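Attaching the record inline, Q. Sequence:
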Amino acid sequence: MINFNYIITNDVNNKQYVGAHSTNNINDNYMGSGLLIGRAKKKYGKENFTKEILCYTKTTKEAYENEVHLIKEYNTLVPNGYNISPTGGLGFVGQFSEETKAKMREAVIGKPKSEEHKQNMKGPKSEEHKQNMRKPKSEEHKQNMKGPKSEEHTENISKALIGKEFSKERIENMKQVRKGKTYIEIYGEEKAREIIENISRKIWVYNKIIDKEKRIEKEELQQYLNNSYTINRKPVSKSTRQNISKVSKNTIWINNGNKNKRIKEKNIQKFLDSGYKRGILKIK
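Structure, as predicted:
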């Protein structure tokens, strides 16, 4: 498997997008799957975008860690570029380490479910079951749902999600997001606002002892601070810093009077021809 970071440039407006990719075919013509870069490709045509490989990494995880710094380095966060999140794909569902994937496979191998078990999981729930689900939760129950979870608890949750089937409605909504539609177009203004507010209520914390980072609700912060977490992200590894250093070589800062951009020095002439000049624009 080949893992690397890349940057895509819109040759029409010079906006850029930083991403990470893993593939067995370096010539697979992959051109990013972000929401805004997807819309831009539809608007301007895929032929008007250029992709450059910035660096290669040993693992998928390392490539995603690089995104955090490359997005900042190349100033590709919206509205200057097409990256929506300052952390790129880091922390999103699906970015599991090889070790985690192996554990997940071991958890289900050789454990077939009986027909009775399958039917109990699928079939309609009794009225008694539904009423129990609707009952108000006690304060003790609510507190147990918050705060750091034990390793056993976390593992049980992972096992429960393996093979989980999503509703047709949810699958359709996910498809619409990938097609470039906004949350408002999919869910309506009220639901979209709720989703965005939920995202803004979260914060990153890191536990140095167990070398683990996590995104939590802000109201849970004190419980995590009491359990050796700090408000921080996981420190960047030496190899990642070296990769970033390599990427920064032979690059220069330019600006067009409104925004700054960091580019490969070999590409300077086409930017100068389109109105850019060397140097960083100072924001007052």
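The CA atoms of residues 128 and 134 lie 10 Å apart. Residues 2-94+237-278 form a domain with the GIY-YIG endonuclease fold (CATH 3.40.1440.10).

More tomorrow.
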